Amino acid sequence: MRKRWFSQVQHTFAVWASTTLLTLSLGFSPTLAQDPFRATNQRQIGDNTEAAFKAIFEQGNYQAAVNYLNQAETSEPNEPLAYAMKASLAYTLNDDINAFGNYGKRTLEAGRQLIAQDPLRGNLYAAVGHFLQGAAALVREGTVRGTPQALSELRQVYAYLDKAEAIAPNDPELNLLRGYMDLMLAVNLPFSSPQQAIDRLVRFAGPRYLADRGLAIGYRDLDQYTEALTYVDRALQATPNNPELYYLKAQILAEQGKKQNNPSALKAAVENFDRAIAKKDQLPSSLVKQIERERSRTVQRVSGAS
């Protein structure tokens, strides 16, 4: 459960891919940095931060991302997006909650410093920093002791998000991050409606394939498998080299096959688990183990359905 929460947190705050797809490898040398979210009114994002962003969210290549982020920490010390990704990788790769919290704090500090220069992104990443601090408190302190701080941080999250939204309500980066946050909360809290978050991701969020990925996750968690498959296929069409998307599609098909007693969906799930595992060398070892466990359970269900 804790890993699933952090997987959702990771894809909530992170900084996802640019509209121009590039093939990344450990030897890729970035040139002019581009804004990965906006076609107009672009912001300058550092070369290494952008390369790390693409490595994770276009290619699912975490090892390449680590190299780029290590360089970004020196070359781009004022970019909050880099610290947000560092926080994610600290937990995803090393299960290091202390580093996760520390980089969350640095995300918050960098976001606040950016407000004078770029109020939209500054307020947005101050919100992300508080979000990460709240998640760290829940894991470090446990649900009972950590909830008061997490709720306090969440109030700060939405205070900063409201400030960012007052500046540019249709901004793609804002709507991507807020859409992910709102949808994650809506599908996990009783009496919450996900529709507003879904509308935000459909209408305003960018880049498109990351919005589609968020919608696929949301519809998966709402047990709406037809819609989930539609959106994950759209994301795969744009970024076909990312093994995490095959894992997501496999999860959707496995749940559909289990709950609808559909052997064809289960077999298709196994095929997509295999496509994800084929690139296991570039994924976190903990994620690979999780994929293999889910594949094994699905294979057992296929045998039982035969």
From TrEMBL:
It comes from the Bacteria. Coiled coil: none annotated. TPR repeats lie at residues 209-242. Transmembrane segments: none annotated. PROSITE patterns: TPR. SUPFAM superfamilies: TPR-like. Keywords: Repeat, Signal, TPR repeat. Residues 1-33 form the signal peptide. The keyword Transferase does not apply. Gene3D superfamilies: Tetratricopeptide repeat domain. This is Uncharacterized protein. The lineage of its organism: Bacteria, Bacillati, Cyanobacteriota, Cyanophyceae, Oscillatoriophycideae.
